[in-house]
Amino acid sequence: MSVPHSTRICQIIKLKPSAVAEYKECHAAVWPGVLVALERAHIVDYSINYYPPLDLLIATMKYTGTDYEGDMAKVAEDPETQRWWKMTDGMQESFVDGATGSGGEIPWWANVEEVFRFEGKP
What we know:
Shape: globular
Distance between the termini: 10 Å
Radius of gyration: 15 Å
Structural class: alpha+beta
Number of strands: 5
């Protein structure tokens, strides 16, 4: 899905092997307020994929706004998102040194550098 004037973002985090079933279950029914907060923050085309051999979660999304840091701060202030993160953070292990959880000063999910892109014809 090509979104004009968007920035692609890819992030990774480790999923604890003991939490795979629970993580998939809660993401099969993401709380509506969490989705609203993401939408308000100009996040579109968001998906999380799981690679079992490395217990790796890979998130990709597009950001269509003009103030990513400000929009992410608003997401972090959302009470329902904070409750969601409290539930899901315990299922994950961050690759980012010093990270203590989602919404903190240090990012919980590690950003991954894009090394190739092909969008094809519009």
